[in-house]
Design goal:
six-stranded antiparallel beta sheet; Alpha-D-Glucose-1,6-Bisphosphate, Chain A, domain 3; six-stranded mixed beta sheet; 4 domains
Length: 449
Amino acid sequence: MSLDTIFKAYDIRGLYPGEIDEPSARAIGNAFARFTACPRVVVAHDMRPSSIPLTEAFVAGVTAAGVDAVLIGLASTDLLYYAAGILDAPGAMFTASHNPAQYNGIKLCKAGAAPIGEDTGLNEIKAMAAAALATGDLVRAASPGSTTRRDLLADYASHVHSFVDRARLRPLTVVADTANGMGGLVVPEVFRGLPFDLTLLFAELDGTFPNHPADPIQPENLRDLQAKVLEVGADVGLAFDGDADRVFLVDDLAQPVSGSLTTVLVARGMLAKHPGDIIVHNLICSKAVPEIVKELGGTTVRTRVGHSFIKQVMAETGAIFGGEHSGHYYFRDNYRADSGLIAALVILEQLSMTSEPLSQLRIPLERYSASGERNTRVSDPQHVIEAIAARFADAEQDRLDGLTVDLGEWWFNLRASNTEPLLRLNLEAPDAVSCAAHTDELLALIAAS
């Protein structure tokens, strides 16, 4: 079995058992233990049926290398990152996030929840695991490691609570759609004891996803949440993905809240407690993000797309918070790891401190119209990027991540996919009409290039 298929830019992911199986998980566990060279590794898994056998195989590879395994069992990815931080140990989370049931994978981090991507260890782990698979045996220590179990859920909930002033919270009605994913475990624990009336949708842990895909970035997967928000008159709706590290919001009128707007709302809450601090955002976030952060007295730093880049820049700058349009929100005091639940609680604290509903609170913060990510399959992404760059040669351009072109009133970014022959277009303009027109223009140019 080739590992090329399952090793991605930021994690490991593939079909079970055709692409990722127990022997590959065992070899990856062995390689991970040797790569990190730490005395123990913390391991967690989601609710997919394949997660338990894959986790057991991974742990066998870890302990064969003479490294201890700390098993925290069922967990969200942000709970795993918390464990890697609080225990100062490398971590492995078995999940395929928002992917369908037949997929599984592994998200890895170094001790302290430091990121691992293809440029920060994933390629080395892949090479070591491939060598073990080729020989049919693991690298074994003279004495195998041990396994222990830890329950960190209550500690994690207390950690999430530390990001808000509980005395400021007031009764609010909240609906959370956990899509049969790991939010069904962590959301009730975090909300326990808080003055919120919580309604849960699809809270049963079921890795076959019997109700709808655990992919809240797709509008059709928000429909159940939107209907329930209107039915119960909720103040806000929260939609979590399969491993519950991402959150998407809908307001009291059941209208979706973009990742950029959520970034603005969280940044506002963080700057209220940390005046003048640094906020990181990736380059496909709305221009409203740096504009509003500046108005609030903060400073912004623009980064490439992807968690490893955001975390690296946060470490370099000491930023208090980082946001991505895709629903990932990172916190300095959360080991620079992302947490949808922390982001949700920060926003609920802000709603607690105003009489305005979210539908009104958002109006002055939404200043532009966005295309959303538009993907086009092309045979040579880089050729198309260069052709588009030449077409807009007189405009301001940068190559931080793909091609960004700023034409004053509107801008766009073109990036090649890391895994497929796709071009990803993100565009923003002053209003919906001009946004649609410029988007059609760019898509036509891409097709003709």
